[in-house]
Specification:
The complex is a heterodimer of chains A (278) and B (535). Chain A contains 11 helices and 7 strands. Chain A is globular. Chain A folds into 3 domains: 2-125, Orthogonal Bundle (Cytochrome Bc1 Complex, Chain D, domain 2), CATH 1.10.760.10; 139-189 and 248-268, Cytochrome Bc1 Complex, Chain D, domain 2 (Orthogonal Bundle); 195-241, SH3 type barrels. Helix content of chain A is 38%, strand content 13%. Chain B has one domain (22-54, 75-531): 8 Propeller (Methanol Dehydrogenase, Chain A). In chain B, 4% of the residues lie in helices and 38% in strands. Chain B has a 5-stranded mixed β-sheet with strand order 1-32-33-34-35, with no helix packed on it. In chain B, β4 and β5 form a beta hairpin. The chains are: A alpha+beta (278), B mainly beta (535).
Chain lengths: 278, 535
């Protein structure tokens, strides 16, 4: 558990002792991306080793569980047990851990190779994986529903609205369960920079939108008509922070289970759009 | 020829006039009495960061405007408190860069840069908190655990002393404390299994005068607070990374000590783990321990007690008391008797869930459920603490203590970890609980009653220190890159300026040059000076 220790530690230290110091370092110096040389996941010495798996678990809980869930069945991020049930290779897992997934919340990592190998050892040990997620539902109907119900606020590629998050790669960023949850109950978790605020001006005008940033003195929003607006708080009567999402909840009365299934089916096909001009 | 001779004679005369020590021990004792100077980390030996300057007032502070910005052009963030002496600013920066800068214009005079090895072991970046000064020498510590003396006029190195071996995890970031003829520094690295210490060196020769270990050895007083027949103490932590203060009447230096190591795993070091997470009062001449007070016995949450011990003379129950004020990372604010080290009063100044109160015996009364383990346990405050390395301020005019407070919680994990020399050794980690909404605040607290007189909330947590001035102002930074001014009695916000990146460690210092009062604020890798418009 030599290296494993340092892993845990390394994680811990992201904010540890001389502590806040690291924050400052981090702020000014984005982590250098480590190149992948050869296949570091070949001959992983930690596979099947109890100590390593425990260390990997600790790492997982600190770094991964917030998005992928304590049991790795997915929360905001995809269900990893489903991923592991496929024929995904350790080399592929290593690559994803190291490089992250562009266009999603999955970050790249500058941790030592050994830390990533510990994580893989833990992931491989996870209890009976569920069967792989397959595209289900009528994707064509899902695309039609998306155009009618979602595209005014969500963008795929170069089309659609900008008030809500861009969904061009949501098929790799979200598990099916997360998609269902976020459509049925979007207020359960609102991503940063999409939190709902209503600004009340001195003359009583109300501006509702997604908060992009704020400090003590000012606030920046995109209003529901996609206008970016900045206000000095001193010129506002009130700033109302709303708990829910700007997105309406699509309860079964609004979107049947069958349509939801089709819509999610369509969303899982969204895996990025090539906009390179050739 | 005659003209040349005149010039030569002139320069000789000038040289004769400027010879002699630029900064004397008496100057350091006088602290901020000379308003053109800021000579020690805390402004003076008491660490109050309370300036006597009154040109900038609550009435005119709204006219304060930026005069110049010095861009270092380096990576990393300032955590320095710049020294100001005779019209020149001396500042240390990231990666052991340092500069001398004209205090009027912001123009560079000289620059020093140390070549640091590639294999440094640093938990938290190659930051530095500033110079100490004596005579014509500046003293700084280095990320690779050395103490340097630099020539004030040129930045040239006069001596270089190794404090400890950086290869095994030692490092140094603290601004030296100069007392009489000695330079006092401490060592960091508690996340790498080091044994902390405070060292004093002869300011002239660089020869070591004394050492105090912040982790007691088996045969020393306090040694019984570490596991018996074990070498746990050898990697027991106790880093020193924020500058202490000095009481000349008692000839005592006060230093706050860091967390024990490993940070989170209890079974590795049963016992109170003296003198970690403590305040130690040492004889300035010999380094002998006069008294200690341990804020967090057997700390398990990485709560270094490396905050600034602020020395204040208070009237309590009609009696004059010599006190030391200490807002701790563990969430409690302490007023201690600085002659005896006993608690006078201690109360939480942020949400604190791990201890009910500080008992009559001075020990925290623990609440159950806060032992970090493999499943994690939620505790407030988080590892960053209720406050941290950023300096508070005490204003003897308002009798209030001003501190940047953090309202935070964390899930703490702890587990057994094998120690390997040179590897990080924390025995755990933390994560932020889902839906945890952290925020920051500047709080004004009465150090006698511990009543909160006012607060100003920030939307996010801040790492800025605080400065007060005799005109009734408080300066501090929020978590979003603003430097703000407040009325010190009411907390009313009177002015702000967005510097664009967080202020860390120092909430500004102030000095006079050419009859103008400047506010100097390090943020990111820039220094910005503010003043009132010239009439």
């Amino acid at each position: 558990m030599t290296r494993s220790g340092s892993i845990l530690v390394a994680l811990a230290l992201v904010s540890a002792t001389a502590g806040a110091a690291r924050l400052s370092a981090g702020a000014a110096q984005p982590p250098q991306e480590r190149p992948i040389v050869g296949n570091p996941a070949a001959n992983n010495p930690h596979l099947g080793k109890a100590d390593s798996i425990r260390a990997g678990m600790a790492l997982y809980r600190i770094r991964c569980a917030d998005c992928h869930g304590m049991d790795a069945t997915g929360y905001r991020g995809p269900d990893l047990t489903a991923l592991l049930a496929t024929d995904v290779s350790d080399e592929r897992l290593f690559h994803t851990l190291r490089k992250g997934v562009p266009g999603t919340e999955m970050p790249s990592s500058d941790d030592p190779d050994d830390d990533l190998l510990l994580l893989i050892a833990y992931l491989r040990k996870l209890a009976t994986p569920a069967p792989a997620e397959k595209t289900v539902g009528n994707v064509e109907n899902g695309a039609r529903l998306f155009g009618a119900q979602c595209a005014s606020c969500h963008r795929v590629g170069t089309r659609g609205g900008r008030l809500g998050p861009d969904l061009s790669r949501v098929g790799v960023a979200r598990s099916r369960a997360a998609l269902v949850r976020e459509i049925r109950t979007p207020g359960e978790w609102v991503p940063p920079t999409f939190e709902t605020v209503t600004l009340v001006t001195k003359d009583g005008q109300r501006i509702r939108g997604a908060k992009k940033n704020e400090d003590v003195f000012s606030i920046q929003v995109m209003d529901t008509r996609e206008r970016i607006q900045g206000y000095q708080k001193a010129n506002l009567q009130e700033v109302i922070y709303e708990k829910g999402s700007l997105m309406p909840a699509f309860a079964p009365g609004r979107l049947s289970d069958s349509d939801l299934n089709d819509l999610v089916g369509y969303l899982t096909t969204l895996r990025g759009v090539d906009v390179l001009v050739r | 020829m005659r003209a040349l001779l005149m010039i030569l004679i002139g320069s000789v005369t000038l040289a004769a006039q400027t010879a002699g020590p630029q900064v004397t021990s008496q100057d350091l004792l006088d602290g901020l009495k000379d308003p053109t100077r800021w000579l020690t980390y805390g402004g003076d030996y008491s660490g109050t960061r309370n300036s006597p300057l009154t040109q900038i007032t609550p009435e005119n502070v709204n006219q304060l405007s930026a005069q110049w910005t010095f861009q270092t052009g380096t990576l990393g963030s300032f955590q320095t408190t710049p020294i100001v002496a005779d019209g020149v600013i001396y500042a240390t920066g990231f990666n052991n860069n340092a500069w001398a800068i004209d205090a009027r214009s912001g123009r560079q005079i000289w620059r020093y840069r140390r070549n640091l090895p590639d294999d440094l072991k640093l938990c938290c970046g190659a930051v530095n908190r500033g110079f100490g000064v004596l005579g014509e020498r500046l003293y700084m510590t280095t990320a690779d655990a050395h103490l340097l003396a630099l020539d004030m006029k040129t930045g040239g190195v006069l001596f270089d002393v190794e404090l400890a071996d950086y290869h095994v995890g030692y490092s140094a970031t603290v601004a030296p404390l100069v007392v009489k003829d000695k330079v006092i520094v401490g060592i960091a690295g508690a996340e790498y299994g080091i044994r902390g210490f405070i060292d004093a060196f002869d300011a002239q020769t660089g020869k070591k005068a004394w050492r105090f270990y912040t982790v007691a050895g088996p045969d020393e007083p306090g040694g019984h607070t570490w596991p018996k027949d074990s070498d746990a103490y050898k990697r027991g932590g106790g880093s020193i990374w924020v500058t202490g203060t000095y009481d000349p009447q008692q000839n005592l230096v006060f230093w706050g000590t860091g967390n024990p190591g490993p940070d989170y795993y209890s079974s590795a070091r049963e016992g109170d783990n003296l003198y970690t997470a403590s305040l130690v009062a040492l004889d300035a001449d010999t380094g002998k321990l006069r008294w200690h007070y341990q804020f967090t016995p057997h700390d398990l949450h990485d709560w270094d007690s490396t905050q600034v011990p602020v020395l204040a003379d208070l009237t309590i129950n009609g009696q004059p008391r010599k006190t030391v004020l200490f807002a701790n990372r563990n969430g409690f604010f302490y007023t201690l008797d600085r002659v005896t080290g006993k608690v006078i009063i201690a109360k939480p100044f942020v949400e604190t869930t791990w201890a009910k109160e500080i008992g009559a015996d001075g020990r925290p009364v623990l609440l159950p459920g806060h032992l970090p383990d493999e499943d994690g346990s939620k505790t407030c405050p988080d590892l960053g603490g209720g406050t941290n390395f950023f300096s508070p301020s005490y204003d003897p005019n308002t009798h209030l203590f001003y501190v940047t407070a953090r309202e935070t919680c964390a899930t703490y994990f702890g587990y057994d970890q094998k120690f390997t020399v040179g590897d990080q050794y924390t025995g755990g980690a933390t994560s932020r609980p889902r839906d945890q909404k952290n925020f920051g605040a500047l709080r004004a607290i009465d150090p006698v009653s511990h009543e909160r007189k006012w607060e100003f909330r920030y939307p996010s947590v801040s790492a800025s220190g605080v400065l007060t001035t005799a005109s009734g102002l408080v300066f501090a930074g929020d978590g979003d890159g603003n430097i703000l001014a407040f009325d010190s009695r009411t907390g009313k916000n009177l002015w702000h300026y967005l510097l664009g990146t967080q202020i860390r460690s120092t909430g500004g210092t102030t000095y006079m040059v050419d009859g103008r009062q400047y506010l100097l604020v390090p943020s990111g890798s820039a220094l910005t000076a503010f003043a009132l418009p010239q009439r």
